[in-house]
């Protein structure tokens, strides 16, 4: 066997620890696939005294991860610290500039600095691999960049955040409100103490920005992703979704349209018999639609030490074998600059749930506001009557433009008989 690939790992937390264990427990299969052993020779983390569950005898310790990145004895650098700022930013650029290939799980860094990273890698001839950055153990980066490379991709859609999917699944299965389920998810370790990054859709948006760039060969543009999270989804909406034959999922969707590329993260009503509707709990899934291949769906665990380590080590095996690909599937200066479609131009059907005072003329007022904005109704749902009391009504629209829908909803919200902010959820085919 040839010389081992010597790896330096910066970050020994959930994912870093998982990578150390995988390389130890599956050393034989990894070496067989890589054509040589992969050996960890240097590590960096904040706390040297912490037990990582794996013996690190003889492994060089770096208090400064940037110094690890440029160490001459290291062939490849694995960045598992996270965040789009330093030290992750400094260490990945330092490694690439030094001609060292990098493997990372850092979606925030890729989403915000993807083009500059690709340019740095191209200048020095180093590789930058990031399979673990999107959907954990699901090999979606390789699928888009290699397996589906011959297709013109029309659409990519996915459940990209396990925390949100766990919360929405629990709300549906147990009829509970968002805040209760979030508190429970935090206790179980499925949600962070500061959950905003996940539940406000930012994490899914980072991942979608990466998928959009790969799917459409366009420079990554995180700021163009429309982002909404799941805080506003209520148990009532989930119950109505069930009644209408839908499930509510937080999806990341990127679509090629005549006007340009649409990329958006928001709660969606998806038909309950569609494949994405059936992906529950902490699972992630991604659907890609290509002109020759048709529809492909990959499902699996989107986070956690094991699945994420599986993706990181797959990238290391590629490096050990000398298998490389351009960061975004094509040369950085050959990426397209196709325009992004603003959310106001989005066209689709909508679910609209109102809480109204049950009195004569309310429905006519609501219907009038929709008509005046050019929004046409497909169906309406109301259960029983409760004169003088608050009752929910649900309206489903035909396809309409987002800008028109916003005008209608603003008007409806200002009606005296409408008691709270309307709930608006886009309907997606899944
Ligand atoms: N967790 C997942 O399931 C998952 C899934 C997909 C992708 N990712 C991505 O993987 C990356 C790592 O996530 P994680 O969950 O493993 O994070 P984590 O558990 O918080 O671990 C972060 C590691 O970085 C080290 N670190 C932090 N600041 C440092 C500094 N200034 N210098 C040196 N080391 C430093 C920490 O050291 P100490 O241990 O000494 O504190 C820790 O070992 C992130 O980009 C994340 O988005 C995570």
Q: How would you sum up the global shape?
A: elongated
> In percent, how much strand structure appears in the residues?
15-25%
Q: Enter the CATH topology name of the largest domain.
A: Dihydrodipicolinate Reductase, domain 2
- Arithmetic mean of pLDDT: 96
Largest sheet: 11 strands, mixed
SS summary, helix count: 14
CATH architecture of the largest domain: 2-Layer Sandwich
So what's the CATH class of the largest domain? Alpha Beta
Helical residues, percent: 25-40%
Whole-number count of domains: 3
* Poorly predicted tracts of residues: none
Q: Could you state the CATH homologous superfamily of the largest domain?
A: Dihydrodipicolinate Reductase, domain 2
Bound molecules: NADP nicotinamide-adenine-dinucleotide phosphate
